[in-house]
């Protein structure tokens, strides 16, 4: 296993299966430190077949799993070296807290650490449509170096089902860390129509 460390946060937006799939892939390349918000646990109950099983899986993939209240956790400090952080899914509440520097919980604090330390920060915002406030918060975070990677559908690779769509988003997030796992077929140019 790699000695490189990465932080993954699951927040209370729809899209928990994307975050869970991302944890599987990240754990192959990094020591994974996971934060799960209280709202993410509630969404997990709605979007998965077994919250208990999914939390156990996260624990098996991660070095540590933290709640958002554990502000004393190692990932809250800039001296804890990581390759960066991914918030997937990222709620508009979390996005707003990060954009305003609120740091009211461990997720916001760990994200703020990435910004102040100049580390990679990837946000997977889950909302549609985006309001002007959402867009302004994303622009503000983009200007300080965050990558905004919403889970936008791709059709050119002819997905067979929801799993392919999830893998497409996971692949796009991993590419922000220069990791390519072949989770989706890349565009190879136009196809002949004749």
Write the layout of secondary structure elements.
Layout: E1 5-10, H1 16-26, E2 31-36, H2 38-47, H3 51-61, E3 64-67, E4 84-90, H4 92-99, H5 106-117, E5 120-125, H6 132-143, E6 147-148, H7 162-175
Parallel strand pairs: 1-2, 1-4, 2-3, 4-5, 5-6
Helix pairs in contact: 1-7, 4-5, 4-6
Describe it.
This protein has helices spanning 16-26, 38-47, 51-61, 92-99, 106-117, 132-143, 162-175, and strands at residues 5-10, 31-36, 64-67, 84-90, 120-125, 147-148. It has 194 residues and is α/β, with parallel strands linked by helices. The mean pLDDT is 95. 40% of the residues lie in helices and 16% in strands. The protein is built from seven helices and six strands; from the N terminus they run βαβααββααβαβα. Strands 3-2-1-4-5-6 form a six-stranded parallel sheet, with helices on both faces. The chain has one domain (5-175): Rossmann fold, CATH 3.40.50.1950.
């Amino acid at each position: 296993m790699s000695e490189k460390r990465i932080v993954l946060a699951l927040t209370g937006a729809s899209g928990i299966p994307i975050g869970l799939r991302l944890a599987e892939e990240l754990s192959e390349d990094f020591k994974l430190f996971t934060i799960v918000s209280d709202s993410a646990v509630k969404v997990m109950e709605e979007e998965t077949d077994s919250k208990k099983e999914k939390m156990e899986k996260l624990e098996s993939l991660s070095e540590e799993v933290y709640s958002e209240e554990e502000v004393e956790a190692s990932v809250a400090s800039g001296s804890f070296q990581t390759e960066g952080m991914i918030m997937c899914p990222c709620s508009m509440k979390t996005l707003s807290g990060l954009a305003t520097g609120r740091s009211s919980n461990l997720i916001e604090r760990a994200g703020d650490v990435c910004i102040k330390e100049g580390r990679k920060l990837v946000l997977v915002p889950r909302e549609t449509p985006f309001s002007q406030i959402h867009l302004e918060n994303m622009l503000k975070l983009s200007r300080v170096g965050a990558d905004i990677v919403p889970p936008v559908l791709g059709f050119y690779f002819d997905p067979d089902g929801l799993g392919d769509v999830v893998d497409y988003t996971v692949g796009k997030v991993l590419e922000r860390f220069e990791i390519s796992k072949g989770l989706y077929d890349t565009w190879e140019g136009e196809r002949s129509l004749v």
